[in-house]
Amino acid sequence: MADTTKPDVSAVESFDKTKLKHTETQEKNPLPSKENLDQEKTLDNVKHFDKTQLKHAETQEKNQLPTKENLDQEKTLDNVKKFDKTQLKHAETQEKNQLPTKENLDQEKTLDNVKKFDKTQLKHAETQEKNPLPTKETIAQEKADK
Predict the structure, then answer these.
(1) What is the mean pLDDT of the chain?
(2) Rounded to 10 degrees, what is the CA torsion of 108, 111, 113, 114?
(3) Residue 90 neighbours by CB distance under 10 Å
(4) Which one, of 71, 73, 94, 69, lies nearest residue 82 by Cα?
(5) In sequence order, which residues have a C-beta less than 8 Å from that of residue 108 and are 6 or more positions away?
(6) Which among 109, 125, 107 is positioned nearest to 117, based on CA atoms?
(7) Average pLDDT in the 9-32 region?
(8) Terminal CA-to-CA distance of the chain, rounded, Å?
(9) Side-chain half-sphere of 101: how many Cα atoms within 13 Å?
(10) Prediction pTM value
(11) What is the spatial distance between Cα 108 and Cα 16, in angstroms, rounded to a whole number?
(12) Secondary structure, 3-state, 14-80
């Protein structure tokens, strides 16, 4: 039995190397640039920064939040009770949900009456043809008369 786990390399041994073309290699993982190295040095300087050289500074809040007293004052109903109604202006309201017209109501009543109609009260009626179609003999006779 032959060992089938090894590949056949006979074609490689007889390969003609003169058929190969020259190519330039390209680095896929280049060395870091000077800018990258400078940036890493800056990060190292930040890590080893001496905080004792900093000076103390006072901060000033320019947009202060309201105090508890201010909030309580706004929440009271006293402001509502003291409101001057004379400063209000008159405004006309527009109804957006209009009532149905008399024709719409009549149409709905008619549809309701049709739905409620009792078919058992209808009487049987025979249909009579008032304009019967001509027979074959009548058609043949009219053709012969022409």
Answers:
(1) 83
(2) 180
(3) 4
(4) 73
(5) 100
(6) 109
(7) 82
(8) 106
(9) 3
(10) 0.22
(11) 97
(12) CCCHHHCCCCCCCCCCCCCCHHHHHHHHHHHHHHCCCHHHCCCCCCCCCCCCCCHHHHHHHHCCHHH
